Amino acid sequence: MQRQFKLTLFIWLLALCLLPIQAFGHTKLVEISPKPDSQLVTSPDQVQLLFSQKLEAANEDSLVVKDDAGKLISAGTAEIGADGKRIYKTLPTLPKGTYRVHYHVMSMDGHMVEGEYAFTVLAEQEEDQNAGIAKPQAPPVIPEEREELEAPIAVTPADGATEVETGQLIRDKWTSVFSNVEGVDGLRMVYYIVFLLLIGMVIWYVVLRRGRSEEDSARHRNWILQLQRIHLLLVIALIVEFVQHTAGFDDWSNVLHILLNTTTGISWAVLLLLSLLGLAVLHRNRYIDIVWVLAFVMMKTQIGHPAASDYRMVVSLLTAIHILAAAIWAGGLLYLILLWRRYRHVAEKLILKFSNASLVAIVLLSISGILSSVMYLTDLSYIFETRWGFLLLLKVAFVLIVIGLGSFIRRRFIRKGLLQVGAWIKLDFMLLVVIASLAALLTAAEPNPPNEPLHWHVMGNDIHMTAEITPRAPGNNRFTVSVWLPMDSGEPKDVSMEITLESEGEKKEVVIKKVNGSNDDSFVGFNKFMYQVEDSLLDQAGNWLIDITVTDQRHKSWSYTRKIRVY
């Protein structure tokens, strides 16, 4: 038995080496105010950051503002906005100088976002003598991280124009799934497999408790005990990894804050306590066992996507059903394999019962998985555009194989008996390991493609042009067009911008107006002119065409066209 189990484990590890998968963070920084490297005429009222997902409770380190000398500008804890996605800190009146903003926040699904940027206040601030005069606001923001962008559809006239940034094809996005494997991915996969096996073995112990000999029960309890010990070690390892990734161990007050004041931290802490409690209370009373299993599963549902969902209760319930169904299947398979060599007579009595239960489990797995996926995705086509979708398709493919294999095993057993299905049961268990591994990776992948700000730069011999749309999401956006013309050309006679939703075909004019912009990104021999407006014309998801036309004083025109996707 041990040799067979080791062989199965070796094949699984070999498969993982052949299919390394990289994990990506979920939460994205969507908007910053004041914007990075901005030069402000007046002191901003506050520093404000908007993220793509809801945030956990903030602490003093979540948002920190310091001056050039490293002196803390605004002490105290930052505040979370009503939508849960915005964090801000009120500032005193700032004198002339450069200020650095550091943010270190956690989203509800346990992922961290950290970064730093600077802004400058240009003029000495005077005390406001009139309380009724409102302080001018900092300019709208642009996110710190920019995506790799799609290639322009058309640029005319040629004028030596060259594209500066190009985008990825869909196949490039898919092949990026198989990249550098991270140790934490392997840890997550091993943990999720052991978690399912432990829950499943406990469920089957409760189900099979009556009518069994004490010898069979003791053997079953011993196998569960070994899984409990392995699970406890894995929980400790994952908690250490989680704390190290989010707060580090330099300051134990931060460690306690993470474990006692965040959804993910509390869930891991409770899982650790339940693991320790299980060593003492399991197998004493079937009702205690059932309560322990349910509590264990519900805590696990609060780590990852369900915790960050807008439909948290429903998604958590569907996830719990999904986990319980998978555990019944996993525990049954493991129990059959453990009984195989020395206790085949016991396995023969149980195989049909396991087969029936597995069929029900697979049906529940499929239904709960489909409903959860629909609730995660805002558009089903995103399945083909994200790593999460690719992993889901792989998982579905393997589940279909398992359904076929389970049907085959059942028919073969009825016709030829247990001796003819042993190898197929082991294959079924190996497929279970693969599916559980994919499920573990799904919890660390983002279901929906992120809306990244557009930064589109095109250079030419007589003109350079940059277009920006921030945050490039349905709703209010800031549209900016920057134009560089030779110094002897004067300012542009006209700069226009139009956007068109492909599915509707109607063009919408974006009325951009000239504003004063920074010359930090100036080109030798060129003058920069910036045009900007905030508007809600980009009002829905879909494919949008961006048309920009620049005309100089000599009536020479340049047209730029680009297609973008808004999620």
Task: Give an overview in words.
By secondary structure, the chain is α+β, with helices and mostly antiparallel strands. The chain has twelve helices and 19 strands. The protein has helices at 2-18, 170-175, 183-207, 214-246, 252-261, 263-281, 286-301, 305-308, 312-340, 344-376, 387-416, 422-442; strands at 29-33, 39-40, 46-51, 63-67, 79-80, 86-90, 97-106, 112-121, 154-156, 162-163, 454-459, 464-470, 477-486, 494-501, 507-510, 513-515, 526-535, 542-551, 557-566. The strands form four sheets. Strands 10-11-12-13-17-16 form a six-stranded antiparallel beta sheet, with no helix packed on it. Helix 11 (387-416) runs antiparallel to helix 12 (422-442). 35% of the residues are buried. Residues 4-25 and 126-181 have low confidence and may be disordered.
Which features does this protein show?
19 strands; alpha+beta; 5-stranded antiparallel β-sheet; 567 residues
Task: Describe the secondary structure blueprint for this structure.
Layout: H1 2-18, E1 29-33, E2 39-40, E3 46-51, E4 63-67, E5 79-80, E6 86-90, E7 97-106, E8 112-121, E9 154-156, E10 162-163, H2 170-175, H3 183-207, H4 214-246, H5 252-261, H6 263-281, H7 286-301, H8 305-308, H9 312-340, H10 344-376, H11 387-416, H12 422-442, E11 454-459, E12 464-470, E13 477-486, E14 494-501, E15 507-510, E16 513-515, E17 526-535, E18 542-551, E19 557-566
Parallel strand pairs: 2-8
Antiparallel strand pairs: 1-3, 3-6, 4-7, 5-6, 7-8, 9-19, 10-11, 11-12, 12-13, 13-17, 14-15, 14-18, 16-17, 18-19
Helix pairs in contact: 3-4, 3-7, 3-9, 3-12, 4-6, 5-6, 6-7, 7-9, 9-10, 9-12, 10-11, 11-12
